[in-house]
Amino acid sequence: MSDDLLFEDDDELSFAGEEEDASPAHVTRPWQILIVDDEEEVHNVTTLVLSGYEVLGRPIEFLHAYSGKEAKAILSDRHRDIALVLLDVVMETDDAGLDVVHFVRNELDDHFVRVVLRTGQPGQAPEERIIREYDINDYKEKTELASTKLKTLVHTTIRSYSDMVALEAARNGLEHVIDASARLFEAKSMYQFASAALRQLTGLLNVSQDAIYCKFGETFAGTDDPGVYHVLAGTGCYFDFVEKELRGELPEKVRDSMLKALELKQNIYEHDALVAYFVTEKGVEHILFIENYAHLDELDRRLIDLFCSNLAIAFESLFLKKEMEQTQHEMVYILGEAVETHSDAPRHHVERVAEVSHMLAIKLGMSEELAEILRCAAPLHDLGNIGIPDEILNKPGKLTDEEFNIIKSHTCLGHQLLKRSNKAVLQFGATIALQHHECWDGSGYPSGLAGEEIDILGRIVAVADVFDTLMSHRTYKLAWPVTEVVDYFKEQRGKQFDPQLVDILLANMDDIHDIWIRYPDEDVKSSAN
User: Fold this and answer.
1) I need a labelling partner for 495 at 20 to 30 A (CA). Which of 110, 126, 179, 339 fits?
2) How far apart are CA 492 and CA 505, in angstroms?
3) What is the CATH number of domain 183-320?
């Protein structure tokens, strides 16, 4: 078969505003075309005609198969990357090409890759029947495909493929956004929402999925460190960086590009990366970095600007919310400490009870979200002591039965003070205040609950509170040695305390020791030091 027969000499056809406008410097991700034909000459001529040709600013990469069997093998491994299959009908059998079409559409279930049948023997596979019975995108006799017509065919089919992939990516991204938006005001889901939105943006623009969105300089702790990147969202190779603070972890080219945008205070369109810059009204700078992006028109760039602006506003709202939550938690700690100073509890008693409670909850399998609320609520366990007279609360000698009954009333007093709130921290606190003196065997107070009748919050704080109390000096006792505290908990396993929580406590004494190191009683010597 001659070149003239397969590809006649026609005038070149250009697509204004597409290939001509796309800078070759932006070309990094080629479109993959699979040529399936048992004639070597067809492969050579197709490659020659399309050599150097670009579609939507991207070059073409060729894959070659010389039989239906070879084509199936390549498609099995790489069909997700292939945009177009130029497929001969008659190869090792008269319908080998049709068998490949059936394999792609039905066995691989791939309806994105574009399939164009090319045949030199049209009588073997009539066009009307093929189009009716098979999911193909075009049917051409080889004699029809002059060089210009081949380029036109490749351009239109790849553009169709690109549009379909972009729509699918947008649909998937929208599903993630809808799913995440149901939990939009939860701190962690905000990052999921941002990453989903970033996936949708890259899908709509049909650009690289490797993208990262950062707040630059200001860290989680609110300090200004120009070497820190606070990652708000990430996709592709940057997904694992989300909600982290980075210094030297990012590749040098990424850091250099971001610093350049920060220095110039503007967007940068480099040969292999897009860096979008945005600053909020509070002066916090945001950077969006997309690798290996395709040609972007003015509308695309405005969409990126809008994305940066809206996401920055969302995150500023998030951090304002987190700041308010932190203030609330600090107030709880201050209140807990104020109550403890009413008694003779050591300086960091409430912090240690909170940290040990959190550790026990996590080891027990409680979610991080609930364990964090428990950590914030645990300092309120003795809130009711505020209503107990000092002379009884701090009596160095043995209490009378009447005095002990007054002491026991602190559980109900604390519960009464906290139960009216609908805030999760104070609701947890109400339960803890009421039940942290209940015992596993039913001998505790105020209600004599037993076993799992006691809320898990009360059971956890009971272990943490008693452990810390035994380990510390009080007016009515000296700190116990660690070995005696351990022996006490072994003895009270299944009596005063939930046996499973005792096992967790004793198996994690190193963690307990670390907590005491972080929160030592500087003015009172304890047995943990």
Assistant:
1) 339
2) 13
3) 3.30.450.40
| Residue that is written with structure tokens 């104020």 in the block | 338
Q: Is a pLDDT exceeding 60 seen at residue 25? A: no
- Scan for tokens 């005792």, then name that residue: 502
Mean pLDDT of 319-338: 66
Beta-bridge mates of residue 61: 32
pLDDT at position 463: 97
> From edge to edge, which strands make up the β-sheet containing 31-36?
60-65, 31-36, 82-88, 114-119, 138-141
Q: Are 203 and 172 in contact (CB under 8 A)?
A: yes
The answer to whether 236 touches 211, Cβ cutoff 8 Å, is: yes
Domain residue ranges of the chain, discontinuous segments joined by +: 6-166, 183-320, 343-518
Span 117-152, pLDDT tens digits: 887 765 555 555 666 667 788 888 777 667 788 898
CA-CA distance, 330 to 109, in Å (whole number)?
56
Are 6-166 and 343-518 in the same CATH fold? no
Q: Is 70 exceeded by the pLDDT of residue 273?
A: yes
Global pTM reads 0.47
Inform me whether the pLDDT recorded for 258 exceeds 90: no
Question: CATH code for 6-166?
Answer: 3.40.50.2300
Q: Is 391 exposed, middle or buried (0-12, 13-18, 19+ CB in 10 A)?
A: exposed
Answer whether 319's CB lies under 8 Å from 282's CB: no
The answer to whether the bond into 446 is cis (omega within 30° of 0) is yes
Q: Are 113 and 82 in contact (CB under 8 A)?
A: yes
Please give the Cα distance from 355 to 361 (Å, whole number). 10
| CATH superfamily assigned to domain 343-518 | Hypothetical protein af1432 (1.10.3210.10)
Q: How many residues does the chain have?
A: 529
Separation between Cα atoms, residue 479 and residue 492, nearest integer Å = 18
Amino acid at 106: N
R_g of the chain, CA atoms, integer Å: 35
For the chain, the helix, strand and coil percentages under 3-state DSSP, each to the nearest 5: 55, 15, 30
